[in-house]
């Protein structure tokens, strides 16, 4: 049997012939190597491409705060009978509808929860639609408090005049730019929202409904507008007996279309096919008076 002799190795003695300095360098090197090995995949996972540049204006600054403020103003002051609505939930459902999503693939479904949280009854005979006549229609409902445009309901009131969109690679809103309807895509969060809420507004309408049309433009009834594309086709004939159009002319404008113009006749034909009676008035008196309040010196006043 071979006689093996084992010699014990002292603990102080370096295991190999490496100086203390080299050991420190090696430690630093391996430390850095481990840091790089961890940081590279984490960096790759965390890296988000910068938000895309769209042609339209970006999200309104302080959008969330504006939405919350408007929700509380509406439910506590404008219509306190809706005081039970949960504005915190409504605000979150609004932003959840578009954050972290491709702003060119927005859907009606995205807004479903928001729709449910903001349901609101408009009394029969009190619905007022408008097309290319926003200011006039809202001047009118500001005085006729019993009548409602979409912007006189909670969701329309909250969103009126605002812009919003997100980005799939970020949980932030895109404040720089949002898709433009014409130049980028039509399924953007903003257009889909107005289509969705306008559809519900029309579906809920009952009795005699009204629309303010602009007789100072050539397409007084425009089949491509939200009114012509969405609202007219979502009125329920079993609930809506009649649609009355008020064709208004701007004071001082030269061009004038009237109830007998061909575009208004198109509206009449669409409604006839849908079994809804149509009636029309040129320069409806009460709204004309409001126009005259703003233009007291005009000869037509
Ligand atoms: O396309 P329009 O008018 O015919 O839309 C108006 C019509 C109204 O009856 C409303 O119920 O559709 C509803 N609606 C709004 O309430 C609304 N508020 C703000 C539709 N669009 C609305 N907006 C914005 O104005 C939105 O950006 C949309 O594209 C325009 C439509 O205005 P329009 O062409 O004068």
TrEMBL record:
It is found in: Membrane. The lineage of its organism: Eukaryota, Metazoa, Chordata, Craniata, Vertebrata. This is ADP-ribosyl cyclase/cyclic ADP-ribose hydrolase 1. Its EC number is 2.4.99.20, 3.2.2.6. Its main location: membrane. GO terms for biological process: positive regulation of B cell proliferation. Homodimer. It is a single-pass type II membrane protein. InterPro entries: ADP-ribosyl_cyclase. GO terms for cellular component: plasma membrane. The chain crosses the membrane at residues 24-47. Keywords: Disulfide bond, Glycoprotein, Hydrolase, Membrane, NAD, NADP, Signal-anchor, Transferase, Transmembrane, Transmembrane helix. One of its GO terms (molecular function) is NAD+ nucleosidase activity, cyclic ADP-ribose generating. Belongs to the ADP-ribosyl cyclase family. Pfam families: Rib_hydrolayse. It catalyses: NAD(+) + H2O = ADP-D-ribose + nicotinamide + H(+).
């Amino acid at each position: 049997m071979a006689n093996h002799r084992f010699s014990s190795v002292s603990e102080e003695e370096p295991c190999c012939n490496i100086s203390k300095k080299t050991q420190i360098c090696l430690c630093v090197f391996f430390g850095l190597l481990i840091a790089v090995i961890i940081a590279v995949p984490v960096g790759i996972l965390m890296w988000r491409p910068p938000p895309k540049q769209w042609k339209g204006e970006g999200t309104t600054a302080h959008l969330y705060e504006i939405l919350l403020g408007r929700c509380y103003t509406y439910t506590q002051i404008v219509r306190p009978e809706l005081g039970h609505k949960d504005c915190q939930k409504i605000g979150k459902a609004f932003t959840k509808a578009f954050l972290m999503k491709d702003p060119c693939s927005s859907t009606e479904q995205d807004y479903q929860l928001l729709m449910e949280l903001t349901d609101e009854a408009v009394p029969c005979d009190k619905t007022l639609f408008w097309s290319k006549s926003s200011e006039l229609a809202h001047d009118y409902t500001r005085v006729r408090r019993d009548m409602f445009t979409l912007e006189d309901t909670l969701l329309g009131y909250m969103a009126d005049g605002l812009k919003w969109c997100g980005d799939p690679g970020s949980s932030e809103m895109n404040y720089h730019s949002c898709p433009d309807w014409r130049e980028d895509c039509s399924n953007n969060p903003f257009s889909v929202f107005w289509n969705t809420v306008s559809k519900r507004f029309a579906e809920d309408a009952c009795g005699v409904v009204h629309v303010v049309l602009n007789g100072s433009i050539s397409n007084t009834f425009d089949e491509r507008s939200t009114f012509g594309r969405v609202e007219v086709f979502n009125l329920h004939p079993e609930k809506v007996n009649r649609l009355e159009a008020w064709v208004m002319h701007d004071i001082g404008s030269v061009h004038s279309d009237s109830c007998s113009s061909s575009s208004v006749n198109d509206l009449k034909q669409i409604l006839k096919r849908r079994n809804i009676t149509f009636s029309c008035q040129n320069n409806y008196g009460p709204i004309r008076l409001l126009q005259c309040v703003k233009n007291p010196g005009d000869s037509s006043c």
